[in-house]
Design a protein that fits this description.
By secondary structure, the chain is mainly α. It has one domain. About 70% of the residues lie in helices and about 0% in strands. The longest helix has 20 residues.
Amino acid sequence: MSVKEPTLPKEMLQNPWMKGELRRPMMLIIKAVKSD
């Protein structure tokens, strides 16, 4: 099963704080999916 990252508006991706806030929960979700 491959995990596809959600596509986000460029404005959000250009914001480093937003990028960091999104990466943290995404990694937790990916870990949970992979360990299933």
